Amino acid sequence: xxxxxxxxxxxxxxxxxxxxxxxxxxxxxxxxxxxxxxxxxxxxxxxxxxxxxxxxxxxxxxxxxxxxxxxxxxxxxxxxxxxxxxxxxxxxxxxxxxxxxxxxxxxxxxxxxxxxxxxxxxxxxxxxxxxxxxxxxxxxxxxxxxxxxxxxxxxxxxxxxxxxxxxxxxxxxxxxxxxxxxxxxxxxxxxxxxxxxxxxxxxxxxxxxxxxxxxxxxxxxxxxxxxxxxxxxxxxxxxxxxxxxxxxxxxxxxxxxxxxxxxxxxxxxxxxxxxxxxxxxxxxxxxxxxxxxxxxxxxxxxxxxxxxxxxxxxxxxxxxxxxxxxxxxxxxxxxxxxxxxxxxxxxxxxxxxxxxxxxxxxxxxxxxxxxxxxxxxxxxxxxxxxxxxxxxxxxxxxxxxxxxxxxxxxxxxxxxxxxxxxxxxxxxxxxxxxxxxxxxxxxxxxxxxxxxxxxxxxxxxxxxxxxxxxxxxxxxxxxxxxxxxxxxxxxxxxxxxxxxxxxxxxxxxxxxxxxxxxxxxxxxxxxxxxxxxxxxxxxxxxxxxxxxxxxxxxxxxxxxxxxxxxxxxxxxxxxxxxxxxxxxxxxxxxxxxxxxxxxxxxxxxxxxxxxxxxxxxxxxxxxxxxxxxxxxxxxxxxxxxxxxxxxxxxxxxxxxxxxxxxxxxxxxxxxxxxxxxxxxxxxxxxxxxxxxxxxxxxxxxxxxxxxxxxxxxxxxxxxxxxxxxxxxxxxxxxxxxxxxxxxxxxxxxxxxxxxxxxxxxxxxxxxxxxxxxxxxxxxxxxxxxxxxxxxxxxxxxxxxxxxxxxxxxxxxxxxxxxxxxxxxxx
Length: 826
Known about the structure:
Blueprint: E1 5-6, E2 9-10, E3 19-25, E4 28-34, E5 43-46, E6 52-57, E7 62-66, H1 79-84, E8 90-99, E9 102-106, H2 111-116, E10 119-126, E11 132-138, E12 143-152, E13 156-165, E14 171-182, H3 189-194, H4 196-202, E15 203-207, E16 214-218, E17 234-240, E18 247-249, H5 255-259, E19 269-271, E20 275-285, E21 290-301, H6 303-315, H7 319-340, H8 350-367, E22 369-370, E23 375-377, H9 378-388, H10 390-395, H11 397-401, E24 406-408, H12 409-418, H13 422-430, E25 434-435, E26 466-468, H14 469-482, H15 487-495, E27 507-509, E28 512-514, H16 534-548, H17 552-557, E29 569-571, H18 574-579, E30 585-587, H19 589-602, H20 621-633, E31 636-637, E32 641-643, E33 662-664, H21 665-683, E34 689-693, H22 694-709, H23 713-716, H24 720-744, E35 750-754, H25 755-775, E36 786-792, E37 804-808
Antiparallel strand pairs: 1-2, 3-4, 4-10, 5-6, 6-7, 8-9, 8-14, 10-11, 11-12, 12-13, 13-21, 14-20, 15-16, 15-19, 16-17, 17-21, 18-20, 22-25, 23-24, 26-27, 27-28, 29-30, 31-32, 32-33, 33-36, 34-35, 36-37
Helix pairs in contact: 8-14, 12-13, 14-16, 15-16, 16-21, 20-22, 21-25, 22-24
C-alpha cells in the first residue's frame, strides 16, 4: 500500500473494527457503536414526547424541527441530500489546540481530521430513542470532543457539547462551535426546496443587543404579489457557556478566518446569508478536566417570546438546572407513554428489551396512545362530535352539557345507547381519544407528509390520529392488547370506513377518511383501492374481541349501527376488468365535489353513504363483514388466489408490477382463517336470522349458486376453461351488484338470512379455498404467496368466445415460484 501525504502529514488509513454494545451515560442506557465512521453512512430518527422530529445521518448532517416539515430548524431534504450536506448543515466545530508550542487545527468529525490524526469515533443512541451523542477522541492531540442532541418541550432542541483533556499535559484551546444552515421562520418546505437561492436573499440574521440570543428571520415572506407579508416570527438560538468574553457569529462568513488563526469579531447583523450560530471561546484545560456548554434552538418565536427569553437568560440563576430538568421530564413522559402500551420489559438479553421498547414506541407514534386510558374528556368528546356530525352535535347539545367533565368509556357508551340514536351511539363507539399519532413520513419517503399534533394553539393537549389504512390498523392491533376495552371501537372504525363494494379508503384520521384524487400533471398522483391486509386485519380484531369479550360480536352482528364509506371510485364491470385489467376504476369527480360540500356542511359524516331518504344508510355488522368477504370471493380465481384488479397492490409495494395480472394466495390464506372463525361462530347460531340489504343478499345467493354448480371441480381440479367459467360467474355477480348500487343506491329494503344458510355457504367456500391451497403447495413443502395469471380471452368483444385463463409461476423452488426472483411474503 502506498504512503500518501497531505503536505508533510502522512494520511492515515487504518481499518478499525466496528463494535456495538450497551453503556451507561449519565445514569441512562445507551447503545454505543465504536468506530462508526468505518461504516457506510446510515440514517437515524430522534423522537420526543412532544412534537419534535429529527432525522440525521451518522455523519452528523440532519434535518429537525417541530410538528411538520414546514416548521423545520434545518432544511428538510431527502435522505440522500442529508447525507451529502455533511459539514454544511447541523453541528459544526473547529478547534485550535496549542500543544508543544504549536497550534493545531482540528475539525472533529470532518473527513480531513480522520486522515491526519489518530482518532476514535463513537456514536451513542439512547435506548429511549430521544437522544444521540457523537464522540471523537483525538489521540495525537490528547483531546476528546463530544456533542449530543436532546429535546425539551419548554426550550426546544438542545445541543450539549463538551471537551475533555485526555492527554498528559495542560492544553490551550480556542474553539468555534455551533450550528450551520439554520432556517428562519416562514421558510416552508416547498419554498426552501424550489427557491432556496431566492430565500437566502430574504434572510436576516441578528444578535440581540447585549445578549447572546441569535434571531433568524425573513425581512418579509417572499411572495409575487403587491401585498404586505410581514414575517412576524423568528427562529431563536442561544447558549449557556461557562466562559466570559465569548464571541458570537450568526453566519459562516468568518469560519476560514478562524481556521487561519485570524481574530474574528462578533456579528450582530448579517443580511442575505444562510443562518448560523457559533460561539467562540478560549480556555485552558487541566489533565482529565472538561468544559461543557449548551446551544438551544427554538422555532416560531414571536416578539413577546424573544423578550421573555432574553429576560430569562439575564435574570435566572439556575438555567442549566431548568434545561436538564425539562429534558429529564420529557424522557420520563416518553417512557410512561411507551409503558402504557406495555413497551417495558426486562430479561437477560439487553438488545431484546431495547428493541421491544423501540418497536412499541414507533407503534404508538403511528397509531397513537390513549391519552388517559379509559377516562374521557368531555370537551374533546364534544369537539369530536362537532367534527363528525354538526347536526347531531347540535341536537344533543343540552344532553352533552350535562355530562361530567370526565367520563369513563363504558359509561359514555351506556349514555349514548339510552337515547336511541344509532348515529350518536355509532359516533361514541368510534370515539378514540388518541394522541401522539402521526402519518408515516420521513425524508426517505417524501410523498407522505407527517404532522405531529400534540398541542392546541392555547397549549392544551390535542387528541388526534392519522395514518395510511394498513399502517394505522396494524398499529392499533398491538395497541388493543394493552387497551382491550377499545377493541369494538376499533372494529367499528374499521368497518364504518369500508365501502359497500368491499374496499377501504387510503387514509384514516380523526377528522374522517380520505382517498386519492387524480391530478393529471402529477406523475405521483394515482387512484385505486388499497385493499391489502384488509381481511386479516379485520379478522385479528374479531379474534381479539372474542378472546377478551366473548359474545360481544354476537350482539353486534344484528345491530343496525354501522355505515358505508362513500368513496367516489367506480369499479368497472367485469367484462371491462378482463378487457384491460390495469384500467379498472373510474374517479367520479362530480360525486367527489358533492362529498366535499357535504363535509363542509355536516362534518366528516358527509363522506358516508346516504340512502334514498337522505339519511345515512345503516346496516348491521353481519352485512359489513359479508360485503368485505363477498368482494374478495367475487375476485376468486380457482387454484390461483384472489385477483388483484383495483390498480393498487394487494399485499406489498414489491407487488406493484403484478397489479391486474397477479392473484394473491396470501389473501386467500387469510380468507381461510376468516371463514374458519365464522364457521365456528355460526355453527352455534344456526337458529338466528339477520336482516341484510336485499341487494347484498342477491350477491350472496349468486356466489353461493356459482359455488354449488361447480362443486365437483373442487374435488377433481380445474382446467383453464373451468377456471375461467367460475371466475366469470363470480366476477359477473360482483359486477352486477356494484353497477346496480352505483346507479340506483340501496333500495332500503332488507331480507332475512339465517345463521344456518351462512354456515352452509362458509362450508362450501372453504371447500374451494382448501382445494386452491393444496394446489399451491410446493415441492419444498412451502406455499406460493401469489401467482401470475395469463389472460387469453376476448370476453365481451362482439362475436368472440370466452377463451382460457392459465396460471403461471407456481411451484418452482429456485425462485419460490415468483417472477424475476421476487420473494413471497410471510
